[in-house]
Amino acid sequence: MVTLQQIHSIDPYEFEKLVAELWESNGYDTNVRSKSNDKAIDIDAERGGRTEKIQVKRYTKNNKIGSNEVRNYATIYQQTNANSVALVTSGEVTDPARDLATKLRVDLCSGKELVQQLESSSVAISDYTESESRSSRSSTAGTRTSNLLLPPD
């Protein structure tokens, strides 16, 4: 069973790798960008010729994604060749942010939704919460995702 407490305990960069592995479990090829030069894109994902740019925010339970983050991230469409953009958080998403995301075509995934996706995937969260496992994993993670964030075909 995956819990938000487990997710909140993961290092932010390891959290990016976890999300990338979640996408890979759904058939995406992914690339986790370097910390210093990600330009608001943490993960590049590609499947079937379609590209998705993913921003990952490992927030505590009290932190929420608001309309400003959605508005800022929506500009990725103008800056890249993305077919879709997604904002994944371990925190919550406000209702106004969800409304705006729908209008701006930004896929959102809250911490609770992420827990559900991880539970229905083959991704082992323990690989990211145990320091021993972390040191043995390479710096590029695979990803898997549920259909919740997948763009329509």
Report the major sheet.
5 strands, mixed
Number of DSSP strand runs: 7
Report the mean per-residue pLDDT as an integer.
85
Order of helices and strands: HHEEEEHHEEHEHHH
- State the share of residues found in helices, binned by percent: 25-40%
Structural class: alpha/beta
Could you name the ranges where pLDDT drops below 50 across 5 or more consecutive residues?
131-148
The coarse overall form would be globular
Instruction: Give the N-terminus to C-terminus distance in angstroms.
Output: 31 Å
Describe this structure in words.
- This protein has about 150 residues and is of the alpha/beta class.
- Helices cover about 40% and strands about 20% of the residues.
- The protein has eight helices and seven strands, in the order ααββββααββαβααα.
- Strands 1-2-3-5-7 form a five-stranded mixed β-sheet, with helices on both faces. Strands 4-6 form a two-stranded parallel ribbon.
- Helix 3 runs parallel beside helix 5.
- The N and C termini lie far apart (about 30 Å).
- About 10% of the residues have low confidence.
In short:
The protein is 39% helix and 20% strand. It has helices at 4-8, 12-24, 67-74, 76-79, 95-104, 111-119, 126-129, 131-136; strands spanning 29-32, 43-47, 50-57, 64-65, 84-89, 92-93, 106-109.
